[in-house]
Amino acid sequence: MTKKRKRIGFTTTLPVEVILAAGHIPVDLNNYFINNQPLALIAEAEKDGFPRSVCSWIKGIYAAARKANLDELIGVTQGDCSNTHSLMSMLKDQGVAVSGFAFPINREYNTLENEIALFEERFETDHSEVIKTKQRLDLIRQKLIQLDELTWKHNLVTGAENHYWLVSASDFGGNPDMFEEKLDNFISEAASRNPYKPKLRLGYLGVPPIFSNLYEVVCSLEAEVVFNEIQRQFAMLTQNTDIVIQYLDYTYPYSVFERLEDIKTEVQKRNVVALISYNQAFCHRQIDNILLRKYLQIPFLTLEGDQPGEIDSRTLLRLESFVEVHS
Ligand code: SF4
Q1: Of the chain's two ends, which shows fewer C-beta atoms within 10 Å, N or C?
Q2: pTM for this structure?
């Protein structure tokens, strides 16, 4: 009997290899939310009682989970968002089949290995299939490394394009083969461009911006983002053959100190001159920003966004002055 291909939603990047190896379709609800009338999705969540003072991403993910024709939802219960447990309860109450995946707080190899094994069991797939799938995805990830280099080494791919491709690799649009075909076309087109010459090389830290035009504004100021920190983490570009190490190298679920180490290395390698640190309103990760600012000894601008849409005039003014001062 043929196994049903299910649509499996998830709240943040997790071992997508397992979902694909089991023959299912991964759906990163963050990508779904931001690409499908995000303001309307937030309004739906608020209609269901979500308060104004809850992060827009959580409200968007909640409404997206109900809209995206999911068969199941995986909530990342450790290593992502402090709101996830409550979000899962709300969705369970709405009849969504919900389960969890936890990154170990101690970043310990055996604990994560066990968690991945349980995940495999949950989806009735065996480890050898998962490893085969990882090898397949790693070939696509190699191309994403090439795309990333076209951004920071060759100035041929913009920060906005870099952001788009890296975040999209958390679920490969549900179809890795189609994703790869589009990526191949994009890379060959980008490789034939003339390089741009930004007057300021920027790094972008934090969760993806809720602003729809942040990268375009940066570009219009003749600066460019040559390092997208968390987006690059979501794309899993470390190319470690051991799947457990791959998800231990992934800095996002662990502490800010792992992020700091990665940021320092990449800032130096990519010749980043200044950093924009994006904070989502009502997000607990704003506290991490205190330590990022403390330990990153280069010009640092903290921005905060709340609702989806274009950046407000105050943020625009702050960006303009920051770029002008550091160019
Ligand atoms: S931005 Fe922060 S509060 Fe919002 S969903 Fe992400 S981790 Fe949670």
Answers
A1: N
A2: 0.96
Q: Which atom of ligand 1 has the smallest separation from the CA of 54?
A: 3
Cα 42 to averaged position of ligand 1 atoms, centre (Å):
14
Is 41 within the bounds of a domain?
yes
CATH number at residue 61: 3.40.50.11890
CA of 285 to the centre of ligand 1 (A): 7
282: left (phi > 0), else alpha (psi -120 to 50), else beta?
left
Closest atom of ligand 1 to CA, residue 285: 2
Tokens of 171: 């679920």
Q: 104 lies in a domain?
A: yes
- 96-105 pLDDT, tens digit per residue, is 999 999 999 9
Task: Please state, rounded to an integer, the average pLDDT across all residues of the chain.
Answer: 97
Q: Does residue 17 lie within any of the structural domains? A: yes
pLDDT in tens, 18-45: 999 999 999 999 999 999 999 999 999 9
Residue 205 Cα to ligand 1 midpoint, Å, equals 14
205 phi and psi, to 5 degrees?
-110, 150
Query: Which residue, among 244, 263, 241, 243, has the nearest Cα to 252 in the 3D structure?
Result: 263
Q: How far is the CA of 39 from the centre of ligand 1 (A)?
A: 16
Alpha helices in 153-255 (DSSP H): 159-168, 176-191, 214-220, 229-234, 243-249
Give the amino acid at 140. I
Write out pLDDT tens, residues 85-135. 999 999 999 999 999 999 999 999 999 999 999 999 999 999 999 999 999
Residue 1 predicted with pLDDT over 90: no
- Per the structure, the count of domains in the chain is 1
80 Cα nearest atom in ligand 1 = 7
What does residue 27 show for φ and ψ, rounded to 5 degrees?
-130, 105
Q: What is the CA radius of gyration of the chain?
A: 19
Question: What is the C-alpha separation between 92 and 259, in angstroms, rounded?
Answer: 32
